[in-house]
Write a structure and sequence with these properties.
Elements: E1 8-13, E2 18-23, E3 30-32, E4 35-40, E5 49-55, E6 59-67, H1 75-83, E7 100-104, E8 107-123, E9 130-141, H2 148-151
């Protein structure tokens, strides 16, 4: 029996090109896409006329599970620190969070984080640092090309 290697993935801050690597095995990787149509009533027609008016950007949602089990002490805190940059800063309405790149396997998604829920579950007794957490991330995909230097990091491109 051959045991497959886990799929590795990374998230990149496209402003600083800092990356966060992790094992990619989400329970669901949800993707939603909306297609818009306009329904127009027309006198004399038995049914209304339906016209395509465009689509909306894809949205992707996934959860990253963090745990300091074993030799990984500090992993959860370090990971949370990385992802906090994608939250808008308080009272910084004119400085949006950086764009994000999610790459797993041959798939790349460039976008912006539109929602992020962080659930901290376990803490160290002495300093109350988180040792177990979940990050639920929603990315709104943008129609951007991969920067040349980054495209070489991902097998197969977009």
């Amino acid at each position: 029996m051959v045991i497959p290697k886990p799929v590795k993935a990374f998230v990149m801050d496209l402003r600083t090109e800092e990356t966060y690597n992790f094992q990619f095995n989400p329970t669901p990787l949800e993707e939603s896409n909306v297609t818009n149509f306009e329904v127009m009533e027309s006198p004399g027609l038995a049914t209304p006329y339906v016209q395509y008016t465009g689509g909306e950007n894809n949205e992707h949602n996934f959860v990253i599970y963090l745990n300091d089990k074993g030799m990984h002490f500090g992993y959860t805190r370090m990971s949370l620190h990385f992802f906090e940059r994608f939250h808008p800063k308080n009272n910084k309405q004119f400085q949006p969070p950086p764009p994000i790149l999610l790459a797993y396997g041959r798939r790349c998604i460039i976008g912006v984080v539109t929602a992020m829920e962080i659930s901290k579950e376990l803490f160290t007794p002495a300093s109350l640092m988180p040792t177990k957490a979940e990050i639920d991330i929603t990315i709104l995909e943008l129609p951007l090309e991969l920067p040349a230097g980054i495209a070489q990091m991902v097998p197969g491109g977009r």
